[in-house]
Specification:
With 497 residues, the chain is mainly beta. The chain has 2 helices and 39 strands. The strands form 10 sheets. It has a 5-stranded antiparallel beta sheet, with no helix packed on it. The protein has a 5-stranded mixed beta sheet with strand order 10-9-8-7-11, with no helix packed on it. A 5-stranded antiparallel beta sheet has the order 26-27-28-31-32, with helices on one face. A hairpin with an 8-residue loop joins strand 33 and strand 34. The two termini are 40 Å apart.
Length: 497
């Protein structure tokens, strides 16, 4: 069985859709994108690209909130690419008490469903055709519900699913419920007792900024990841901070807890340190390894310690791990990605050298130099003492929030359709830049842009294939009230250097 993580989704219905096909040229070259701006009447809260309907390209789904507090209304809408542009397909309203929502596309049944988590039940809307005009509604109780009063504050959720969408996981108060989809029916399959976790994380501890409360409780639900530690025995892994819960597939078997001990007692109490752990196969041996980033501070004070914890043949996990030393003294942690598609993960790290010269540049020129380093997996493993490839990029610097005034490279897009990940970034809020990967070259990415596009760069970027041509498209939006009345679609025109 294959495991897949769905992306978060959000949807909305528009009343005004203004289409602006960009005809601009940059440096004498044809535009690399065709632009479409779509306006909304309410407040745009979330947006993502999803496989809502099996086959073809991705659908664009948006969440729009209307009305006034405390009587907010939430609409979910689906957009599809048709006749050379993105068009609205269907508006769906969800109950006001919905906590989480998400689409699941069951590829084996050529069927899609909208799954709503409500305080005490699961509500599933099955579409009988690709238009979503004929919908069947099914409700089923949750094993344990959420006693939460938050009408109008529905949030998208990454439903974890497998078997082509036939089996999916839902967080509940006491752990994880497992459901199965089949022939427009949903059935409860079992329950894993992996309860939500609590962790003390940051507080200004300033009386003027502290919201009065009687009891405060913040909980997180670790994401399930199907993996394998030894032999061919699959397990569900729940990474959380510097530990992982190992759950056998059988519901009645108890989970085991493995602690890496990457947090000191002081760090567990200071409220300024957190650990992000990813469970994935780093070296392509079929066993699940762990990539761990420990973060402290924020913005210009952000530091990260990265360690790799490989799983041995006997299933034992290296608790100490291999430590990666970034080039700069301010780092954003490592991201694992298979750049050359050989089944082994490369590590990408963004860092900056914070010193007197860097401060002077930020204050006088409003610029900051960021180093992007890549570490490859070699025959003898990772060589983490020095990177295999490095690129430096000057970014704009925002003095108002002491952070980069742009977008750090995103490596999830394939803009020329060759099957290899490319890089998308913005040095400022006025222009997007594409770097097309050179898979067989020592320099993985060129030192000059493969394409640039002048556009107002919004804070949220989603990448997917809207028209099914195998090339990545871009959608941008912003939740801030000044910008959340529209979103921008950039359709790939395929003209790169």
């Amino acid at each position: 069985m294959s495991y897949k993580k769905t992306k978060t989704i959000t949807l909305f219905w528009i009343s005004i859709a203004s289409v602006l096909w960009a005809q601009s040229f940059i440096d004498g070259e044809p535009s690399i994108f065709k632009r479409q701006d779509i306006s909304v009447t309410g407040a745009l809260r979330e947006l993502s690209l999803e496989k809502v309907i099996p086959g073809g390209g991705d659908e664009l789904v948006v969440l729009e909130r209307t009305g006034k507090y405390p009587h907010w209304q939430v609409d979910l809408s689906i957009y599809r690419f048709s006749d050379n542009r993105v068009k609205p397909l269907k508006k769906l309203s969800i109950p006001a008490d919905t906590l989480f929502y998400g689409f699941i596309s069951n590829t084996s049944k050529n069927q899609s469903a909208l799954v709503l988590v409500r305080p005490k039940e699961l509500e599933v809307l099955f579409s009988k055709d690709s238009t979503w005009n004929d919908v069947k509604n099914v409700k089923i109780p949750l094993s344990s519900g959420f006693e939460v009063n938050q009408d109008g504050l529905a949030r998208p959720i990454d439903y974890q699913f497998e078997n082509g969408g036939a089996t999916f996981f839902v967080p509940v108060r006491t752990g994880i419920d497992v459901f199965k989809l089949s022939d427009s029916m949903v059935t409860f399959d079992g329950h894993y007792q992996i309860p939500p976790m609590a962790y003390y994380l940051s507080s200004s501890e300033s009386m003027a900024l502290d919201i009065p409360f009687w009891v405060r409780a913040s909980f997180w639900f670790p994401s399930p990841v199907r993996g394998m530690l030894k032999n061919s025995n699959h397990v569900l892994l729940f990474p959380w901070m510097d530990e992982v819960f190992i759950q056998p597939i059988a519901y009645k078997e108890k989970s085991k807890r493995f602690v890496f001990q990457r947090l000191s007692e002081d760090e567990r109490e200071d409220g300024q340190t957190q650990v992000v752990t990813h469970a994935l196969d780093l070296n392509g041996d079929g066993r699940t390894d762990f990539l761990m980033n420990k973060f402290k501070g924020a913005a210009t004070s952000l530091t990260a310690e990265t360690t790799l914890h490989l799983t041995a043949n006997d299933g034992s996990i290296d608790a100490s791990g291999l430590r990666l030393q970034p080039e700069g003294n301010r780092a954003a942690g490592a991201v694992a990605i298979d750049l050359n598609q050989d089944g082994k993960m490369e590590l990408a790290v963004a860092s900056s050298q914070f010193n007197a010269w860097a401060i002077a540049r930020a204050l006088t020129q409003r610029q900051v130099k960021v180093m992007f380093s890549f570490y490859f997996y070699h025959e003898r493993g990772y060589q983490l003492s020095r990177p295999d490839f490095t690129r430096e990029i000057l970014f704009g610097f925002d003095l108002s929030d002491l952070d980069i005034d742009g977008v750090l490279p995103i490596l999830t897009g394939d803009f020329n359709g060759d099957g290899y990940p490319d890089a998308l970034y913005a040095r400022n809020r006025k222009r997007l830049t594409i770097l097309i990967q050179k898979p067989k070259s020592k320099d993985v990415f060129p030192d000059v842009p493969s394409g640039e596009y002048d556009v107002q760069v919004l804070r949220k970027i989603r990448i997917g294939d809207l028209n099914g041509d195998g090339k990545s498209d871009i959608v941008m939006y912003d939740r801030k009230s000044r910008f959340n009345k529209k979103f921008t679609v950039l359709l790939n025109a395929g003209k790169f250097k």
